[in-house]
Write a structure and sequence with these properties.
Strand content: under 5%
Structural class: mainly alpha
Number of helices: 7
CATH topology: Four Helix Bundle (Hemerythrin (Met), subunit A)
Amino acid sequence: MSGFVVNAVLIFFLVLIAFLALRLHRLFAMVMLSGAFSLVAAALFVVLDAVDVAFTEAAVGAGISTVLALATLSLVPVEEKPHKVAIIPAFIALTTGVLLALAVTDLPKFGAADAPIHNYVAPDFISGSENDIGVPNVVTSVLASYRGYDTLGETVVIFTAAIAVLLIIGGWTRDRRRVSKQAEDDHAG
């Protein structure tokens, strides 16, 4: 029962943050709410035993994306420009949400022993891990071999985001140094 309460509280926070993000027009507040949403989503992934997904969400969603968005804010106005609601994108988003909610009802119960993952995939990974891969640790064999492309993709995403942040920060500090040097030259001359 306590697992249900934790999940319900985290989902409540996700819905609350999403509602607040829809109501705000201050871009800085939007960036902070976006980071908070990613952090709460990462906590939910941890509770759901998807620690690798939680790590990626925390690093990319709450960390690097927030830094990139904050760097972008230095280039744009503080307030969001007024706009009317776009009907077609809103309809597509709501339709997608309804279809996803319907798809969830077809999934097996969380933690059910008769779920397909427990009957087909997991036994094959557990029994064949050492023979197929030559690694006695099942988790390592799954992440490094069976799901190798997925792990490589996650690593590429994190690496690319880190390089982008470093390039933005490097360009920003270079521009600040140039402006500062130009101000010194103007003041001296």
